[in-house]
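Predict structure. Chain length: 215.
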Amino acid sequence: MSISDIAGSASLAGRLRVERRARRPKIVPDRRRFKRVVVSLNGRFMSEDKREYPCEVLNMSPGGMALRAPISPRVGERIVAYLDNLGRLEGTVARIFEGGFAVELKASAQKRERIANLLTWLTNRELGGEERQHERFEPRVAAQKLIMPNSDVYDCRVIDVSLSGASVATQVKPPLETVVILGRLRGTVVRHHDQGFAIQFAELQDPDSLARTFG
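Prediction complete.
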């Protein structure tokens, strides 16, 4: 192979490397893909040393959140948060600010969808929308089991259900704030009515999970 052939091959290889780099998709950080929404969600978080502290979410997106807390973990530390309506969330501390810290969330696509649904619900409620922002529907599988804190099980009929809660008809009426399990979903008794009571789910549900439970 001549010197000119070698030079030509090297030039061709260089052009191919440039073209491959140009075709590579740019990796955009999570925080740039999601808009933060101002919220006020209470909960608690656990640091890597297994200590738990109360916290309040100040703003949030499906990719991250800012927490007000009595202590601030170090940047890069993994934390686990337990929040009202969302349950367990994991993430890494991205930065520290006065009175709190920001977290980059590590969440599945399903969990991110729940976060987005909750943020939409909270935003609409703040704008004066109806408290029952999620559309309620009558389930095809209305007959369900209701489990009480003492493990007693009762039959009930689900009157209607939404992403955030359900209304059930039953003879038993546990006190408000009682934690119950409806089918496979955990929730809290928030209201009594003539036929039974209303439940707010511990976590915002997605349509697929409701369809699996209630048809």
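Summary: Residues 30-126 form a domain with the Thrombin, subunit H fold (CATH 2.40.10.220).
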